[in-house]
Amino acid sequence: MARQDDFLAFAHIGDLHLTTAEADNARDLQTLLQRLRERTELDFVYLPGDNADNGTAEQYRLLRRLLDDFPLPVTVITGDHDMEGGDLGPFYAELQVPQLPYFREVGGVRCLFLDMCGPGTGGPDFRLGREQLQWLEQELHEATRLEQRCVVFMHSYPADLQGPGEAERVARLLHEGPVRLVEIGHTHYNELAHDGGVLYAACRSTGQIEEGGVGFALVTLDGPAVSWRFRELPDGWPWVQITAPGDPRLNGAGVAEGHECRVLVLGDADLSACEWQCDDGPWWPLQPLGKGRYQGDRPVPEGTRRLQVRVRDSRGGEDIDRLDLDGGHRPLAAPADWGSDRTQLGEWQAKGVLGTQLGPNRNGRKW
Description:
Blueprint: E1 7-12, H1 24-36, E2 44-47, H2 57-67, E3 74-76, H3 89-95, E4 102-106, E5 109-113, H4 129-146, E6 150-153, H5 166-176, E7 179-184, E8 191-194, E9 199-202, E10 215-222, E11 225-232, E12 239-244, E13 262-266, E14 271-278, E15 284-290, E16 293-296, E17 306-313, E18 318-324
Parallel strand pairs: 1-2, 2-3, 5-6, 6-7, 7-9
Antiparallel strand pairs: 1-10, 4-5, 8-9, 10-11, 12-13, 13-16, 14-15, 14-17, 15-16, 17-18
Helix pairs in contact: 2-3, 4-5
């Protein structure tokens, strides 16, 4: 049964497009992994597909070497570039990852990992196929029966599915089921889209970037509340992120009306301050819960419009996160727009979203 104290936290590293060890994206991945290797606050690191630019065994062996001594769990799914060789044989043989699809329960949340590529013929022929569709439907039914919240991990928006009726069917299953969040890759840019039922979150790629710099997104599900924020590599520690209440633009009605302030802090030094503030009121201390989580020492006052938190560490590093509680909930989109980027929220600098859609499938170059 879903509980208010269910908690999931992971880092999303965008499409790698690995070619050789000497390429910039391979070095950037090394730097990202070094940055994350001590982050025991996280449940796992997520790679959303297009791991190998040409789907070759050599490129997967490079990824395997980069991950070999990484101490955190890493979940890897497929993208269209992983099918460039005609099948997913090298993907499974070299990475030794579980056969997709599969589910894992993490922090009380049912995480569903899908394969949009294997059932197709390669390239943009995204499909789930009959068996995987039935599996997804059964998993969502089981999660509903158990009153579990779900996060779905897939390479692209459901709208990109090419199988007969798949796009509409999957978008409806996700929208009407217990799904709070769908984490995707493929775009090459950061994007957040909300159809009034589900948040879709795409993370900037690590290879073939046209907007901004390399980085990763920190994603949490705290009870029913989703939080998401991308930061580039040069941004140092600490990192503080409000995990509850939920931002109205990222969550449905009711989720932003929580009575407790909770945050997740990532850092590499002791904190000298960890505080929160409602509107223009006084700063109050946040109390540690363990594993980088902190909670307010009193309820969020009724009528609060803006909530912000700030941290400072012993090395002088600082970070701040803000939440506009009267920002307005996302209206219910027309069913024809469910599961697509037509519900995208646009530019949102505080989340690292530039709104450019600079990627090969929209406004960018064709790699």
